[in-house]
């Protein structure tokens, strides 16, 4: 009786229920062999349930792995501070040499053509070659072994600075002298001179 009922249930399952994909690959044992049909069917069902559970667990683990991958693939906002730090460190490295180049003469000297040019100090007396006038805001030009003609006037420099081809009409060759001029003032210097001694000039060191 129990055997007939079990066979009827198996027949209904095979016809109306969707076949279990895990059981398709299994080889069914012929009924009546070994330990009997009821025992073999129960064993097959138990194995099928275990396989199904392991498959569900595997699918859940896959879903969990994919979810974790999505979380870790999101943009990492912690990288921005590192970029800002590298940028600021780059700026400090660029500023350092610029600040090192800005040096001024103290005191500020002018001199003849035999006086070397450069940054003037108390120990290194050099003629400043980066002079600028604070009155006309022009860079001071200088010409070695030249002197200015006595006929030079304010209008001449106002109209011709800083073109050498026009200024040379008032330049006279004289060895050892150096002719200085901006748009409003001019001087012929033969010896090393501290600009503080000439109160009419508004020339300052424009930094080297």
From TrEMBL:
Keywords: Cytoplasm. It holds the Pfam family RMP. It is found in: Cytoplasm; Photoreceptor inner segment. GO terms for cellular component: cytosol; photoreceptor inner segment. It comes from the Eukaryota. May be involved in photoreceptor outer segment disk morphogenesis. This is Cilia- and flagella-associated protein 418. It comes from Crocuta crocuta. The lineage of its organism: Eukaryota, Metazoa, Chordata, Craniata, Vertebrata.
């Amino acid at each position: 009786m129990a055997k007939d009922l079990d066979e009827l249930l198996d027949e209904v399952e095979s016809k109306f229920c969707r076949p279990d994909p895990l059981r398709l690959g299994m080889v069914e044992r012929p009924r009546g062999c070994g330990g009997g049909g009821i025992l073999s069917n129960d064993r097959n069902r138990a194995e099928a349930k275990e396989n199904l559970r392991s498959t569900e667990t595997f699918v859940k683990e896959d879903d969990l792995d994919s979810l974790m991958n999505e979380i870790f693939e999101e943009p990492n906002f912690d990288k921005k501070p590192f970029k800002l730090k590298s940028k600021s460190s780059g700026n400090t490295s660029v500023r350092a040499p610029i600040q090192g180049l800005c040096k001024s003469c103290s005191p500020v000297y002018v001199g003849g053509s035999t006086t070397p040019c450069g940054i003037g100090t108390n120990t290194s007396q050099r003629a400043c070659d980066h002079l600028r006038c604070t009155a006309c805001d022009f860079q001071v030009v200088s010409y070695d072994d030249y002197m200015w003609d006595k006929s030079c006037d304010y209008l001449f420099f106002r109209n011709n600075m800083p073109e050498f081809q026009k200024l040379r009409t008032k330049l006279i060759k004289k060895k050892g002298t150096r002719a200085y001029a901006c748009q409003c003032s001019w001087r012929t210097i033969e010896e090393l001179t501290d600009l503080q001694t000439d109160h009419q000039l508004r020339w300052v060191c424009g930094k080297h």
